[in-house]
């Protein structure tokens, strides 16, 4: 029996990856999946959701984010749709997200604060607070985002910033290791110091992939990527200190078997760390 709670990510409409992850679950290699809720036409949404539910795999749900047209802190930023259309789209997307969590019995819903236009940080903070007034759920876990991506800034990059954004409405958090490393590189901060700050937060989920050495760009690279620069020793040390907190692998590779390979890589890292702890 594995002594960690590892999982993989699947879009709600990706049946091929779902089948692969179901096989890994049956083999005991993973213990959960993260279902990326993407807005879908109603009949398709229920059909896909029912198929995920039928797999019987314990799930967490990831709410749609700006890449899916749902940008809580600045809904109209980088979006040329009419404001009314954006509002209605977000409302339906969040309804689907909560329904997915209900049907799947998910205890955690990962949420991004979103991206904003340069100079709009204060307005973004206020807008996100209004979003939480309308959409609030005890299952929400607010995720740290990289400081920048593709030239635009994102909201909620460090433990302190997440705490401020959450206020009293969100009490749980998702720690994304590569996002934190990108932020540390961009701001020239210590990754280890920033990681330590998350010990003060109620972290309900970890996200794991890799980034290039010194990069500020989140690419969802494999853990064993030859140019990988994430401090995996520090990451796995934290994971072993918090073994009951699920860790979800997140990849953008079009090849679904990336999870088969990366589950093995993670298992090796986990065991290597166990060996070093046993023989300091």
Automatic annotation (TrEMBL):
Stored InterPro entries: Xyl_isomerase-like_sf, Xyl_isomerase-like_TIM-brl
Domain Xylose isomerase-like TIM barrel residue range list: 45-255
Protein name: TIM barrel protein
Species of the source: Methanoculleus formosensis
